[in-house]
Amino acid sequence: MKTLKFILPALLLIMPVSVFFISCQDKTFEEITYTANVPVYMGFDEFRSSVKRSDPRQMEQPGKIYFKDNYLYVNEINKGVHVVDNSDPANPVITTFLEIPGNFDIAIKGNILYADSFIDLVAIDISDPANPVEIDRVEDAFPNVLPVFDYTYPVYGLDWEKGIVVGWETREVTELVEKGNTYRNEMLYFDNTGAPSLGSNEVSIASSAAGLAGSMARFTLSADYLYAVHNSSLKVFNISSTPGISVNPEIILDRQVETIFPYNDHLFLGTTTGMMVYSLSNPGTPSFVSVFEHINSCDPVVIEGNYAYVTLRSGTQCNGFTNQLDVVDISSLSHPFLVKSYPMFNPHGLGIENHILFVCDGDAGLKVYDANDPMNIHMNQLAHFPDIKTYDVIPYNGLLMLIGSGGLYQYDYTDLDNLVLISHIPVYVP
After folding, report:
1. Are residues 332 and 355 in the same domain?
2. Average of per-residue pLDDT values in the chain
3. How far apart, in Å, are the Cα atoms of 128 and each of 90, 125, 133, 221?
4. CA-closest candidate to residue 149, choices 48, 276, 39
5. Using the 8-state DSSP alphabet, how is residue 89 labeled?
6. Do 224 and 336 fall within a single domain?
7. What is the total count of domains within the chain?
8. What's CA 395's distance to the chain center, in Å?
9. Which of 38, 86, 213, 397 could bridge 217 with an S-S bond, Cβ 3.0-4.6 Å?
């Protein structure tokens, strides 16, 4: 009996070890080689000292646009901002280029330009637009932002501690994986929404505290706050005193959000599955009001009066197959509802002023409608410019500023029967 009492505890100690070796022996590994997106890094110190002014350069891949005080600010995707003197829209002049790595969006209050720079938010003094100076920065304001990559291949070797991912190398990699498994790397969602691969004129332009953004914007301003949409959240920044931007708690949303449009103390958020409405009654903490649901699709929004105009388009990031213009009754913000849909080719940005609706219909060009009767917009097309691959527009007091894959276009639409192209800054084609 003594011998048996000794052997049993010993067996209990040995058994887990035996099981461990058996399970290890069951696993087999193999080397696999495949094509992947391999990150290219920039060190944090270099990244955070890289905002600077440089000489004017030609547009190559223009993105979003912003207008303020006779100047146009045109994003060069992932690289920075072209500063355009637009005091004479018939003869716009690029005066300088503001290098901001990882930039897609901007907003301007007073003399301060706010811009995203990959994961950071930067504040830049543009009192002299030709000599901008960085004055403040919020580090990690937009965590885990990545540059655009080829969805065909997985991401390999991503390490957030190595620095900022500023690009990708597409190359073959070899790694040891458990036999039977495929790639251990998952496709990653990225937040940046870039542009698709895509005489004399008298116009009265007044000065204002904040500027005008296009409908594809992810930044907007209201009073002392900057609002930015990022993945599935609404970021809130108090900019009442700059330098010294303070960060308010973010608003977590239940869907991927892409665009933001302010109107009458409310924010209208364009998401992949609907238009969300938030109240700014407490501007530091926007509160949910309602949502207008739709099928999965990208959807920038503009508002005029009791109607919201929403473009839905098919696209890689949005996983949708619908291309249309929706008209939504928002006379009751708590209960928005669809009143009419119009088929489109592949609509992106849009703008409206005094019931004149401008729709950037992708490769189908710019379409202009009289929207006095929202139920019959398709019967009241005023103009169609099919040869411009359009992305976004800003209409203002008879001047239409349009960005597309071909560059910056400006139209005089004071005579609706005769829209006139008054200037064009083309993209550089090597």
Report:
1. yes
2. 85
3. 22, 8, 9, 21
4. 39
5. T
6. yes
7. 2
8. 20
9. 213
126 and 162 inside one domain: no
pLDDT digits (tens, 9 = 90+) for 182-215: 544 444 433 343 333 223 233 333 344 678 999 9
Contact (Cβ atoms closer than 8 angstroms) between residue 358 and residue 352: yes
Tokens encoding 125: 């003094």
Same domain, 165 and 227: no
- Per DSSP, the three-state class of 37 is strand
- For residues 171 and 317, membership in a common domain is answered with no
Tell me: do 124 and 161 sit in the same domain: no
Does the pLDDT of residue 18 top 80, yes or no? no
Of the candidates 145, 138, 197, 136, the residue with the CA atom closest to the CA atom of residue 166? 145
In SS3 terms, 322-341 reads as CCEEEEEECCCCCCCEEEEE
Is 217 within the bounds of a domain? yes
The alpha carbon dihedral of 68, 366, 61, 186 has a sign of: positive
Instruction: State which residues form the domain around 117.
Output: 43-145+192-426
Find out whether the peptide bond into 243 is cis, omega within 30 degrees of 0. Answer: yes
Tell me the per-residue pLDDT of 277-322, one tens digit each, with 9 for 90 and over: 999 999 999 999 999 987 556 678 999 999 999 998 876 555 556 8
pLDDT tens for 101-127 read: 999 999 999 999 999 999 999 999 999
